[in-house]
Structures are given as C-alpha cells and as structure tokens.
Amino acid sequence: MLGGAIEKLTQKFWPGVSPMPTMSAGATDGRFLRNAGIPTFGHSGLAADIFDVRAHGKDERVSIKAMFEGEQYLYELVKALSGG
Fold first, then answer.
1. Could you read off the pLDDT tens digit of each residue along the chain, which spans 84 residues?
2. Which is nearest to 66 in space by CA: 41, 47, 43?
3. Which long-range contacts (C-beta less than 8 Å, at least 24 apart) are formed by 73-79?
4. Which DSSP category does 57 fall into?
5. Domain limits at 23?
C-alpha cells in the first residue's frame, strides 16, 4: 500500500522519476516510536536538485517550488494512505 501510493504520487508530481529508499544517518523523533515497539519510517517528499545540495550548511536552502510541491505531495500521500 505505502509503496504503491508513493510510486503513483511520484509519477504525478515528478514524471519519470523513480522513488528510491535510502538510509538517513541523522537522528529523528522516530526513535521514540521505535523504542515503544512501533515500526517507523520517514519520507521527506522533497525533490531536491542533486547538483545543489546545501543541507545543514551555512547557506542551507530549498527552492520555493520544491517546498510547495513537497507540501502538496505529502498532503496527498497522507490522504491516500488514510483512505481519503
């Protein structure tokens, strides 16, 4: 269900792009859920320019277009996964 919804919405927002699972080496609040025995997964929804990575740098930024697309994408993903 999750993978299908992600694949479908990825094609809607970014045609021709294949979603790929990756591991984040950073910490998230998901550790509290995992410690309570609840499996936890993260998904950002941001399509970033791979040639302009500025995460956690002095000039960290994300484009306005990516921000609003990501917000709409995550909204539609939550709706799809919650049956709405």
1. 667 899 999 999 999 988 888 777 777 888 899 999 998 888 888 877 778 877 777 888 888 888 999 999 999 999 999 987
2. 47
3. 73/9, 73/13, 73/45, 74/43, 74/45, 76/9, 76/12, 77/5, 77/6, 77/9, 77/43, 77/45
4. S
5. 2-81
Is 27 exposed, middle or buried (CB count within 10 Å of its CB: 0-12, 13-18, 19+)? exposed
Contact 23, 43 (CB under 8 A): no
pLDDT at residue number 61? 84
Q: How many domains does the chain have?
A: 1
The CATH number of the domain where 75 resides is what? 1.10.150.900
For the chain, how many residues are written? 84
